[in-house]
Amino acid sequence: MTKHPTNRAVRRTMWGAPLALAALAWLGVGCGSSASAPGADSGAGGAGSGGSTGGAGTSGGAGAGAGGANVDAGPRDAGGGDRGAPVDTGAPPSDGPAGWRLTWSDEFDGPRGAPPDATKWTPVVGVNNSNGELEYYTSRPSNLALDGSGNLLITALRESYMGSGYTSARINTSGKFAQMYGRFESRVKLPMGHGMWPAFWILGNNDRQVGWPACGEVDIMENAARNPNNNNGALHGPGYSGANGLATQYILAGGYSSDFHVFAAEWEANVVRLYVDDNLYVTRTPADLTARGGGLRWVYDHPFYIILNLAVGGSYPGNPDNATPFPQSLTVDYVRVYSR
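The structure assignment produced for this chain is given below.
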């Protein structure tokens, strides 16, 4: 179906409402978990082991690295950067932001209730035994379906199912799409409420061979909804994972659940840059690891695949409470990948 210009985003076209941010500090949280066994986040029937355990991450803690939380000072003049989240004007462009060429995308067009494209995505089905999470991942339409308006809904429900008190969904492109270097971006609207744990992240496609965190991980969007204003962007690798990842927060006054926002990573040889709504908030290089000492290795030199999920409860967001509304959805407008 055609895109709706009022609710879809294309990079650097029309711009939405300006942003205003306030500051916090570092938080080192990973979408993977050292508790998981080497293996796959690659198919139904698995519990999402293999370094990419269900949900985003291990327990929070002080992350290392220079800088601190990043603050959006609000709208700037025509030559500046902070102009708010881009608003979509149509179908995905063949050329992305300056110098980037579209290589893969999913716009999530299709009838209401349909599953995501099986040629691009694989749902993970089962419980996740790491991070203290509470959900059972399913591929049922009630947890994972297109909304008929060009979005994918990953929906968490409070229900008794297969011995768990909650259900949700998790999908990935393992075995179907992976790319070394490029711009990985998604336009999403986040859920709200204590215990919600959405994430958009990429994981090294050698996770079955070397395990996590040796395969490498980049958290492009990760949020503990008890802190609705915070996006946690992080790199995890051997010796710098979980609470010790290279992590930085981007703080958005008003939070991420009232509207769509674009989260992106630009990854090239020896550098990863993280963005929210086209605002660059941290640049990571091997120098960040050298500064820590200990011979830490930069492992971002092979293809990575994409993961989207909504976890419920666990060591990072805490568990839902009586005030947490259900159902809650991670609403995904698109995922796009570019190369130079």
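Interim note for the steering committee: Confidence is low (pLDDT under 50) at residues 1-29, 32-40, 42-68, 71-84. Residues 16-72+97-109+176-320 form a domain with the Jelly Rolls fold (CATH 2.60.120.200).
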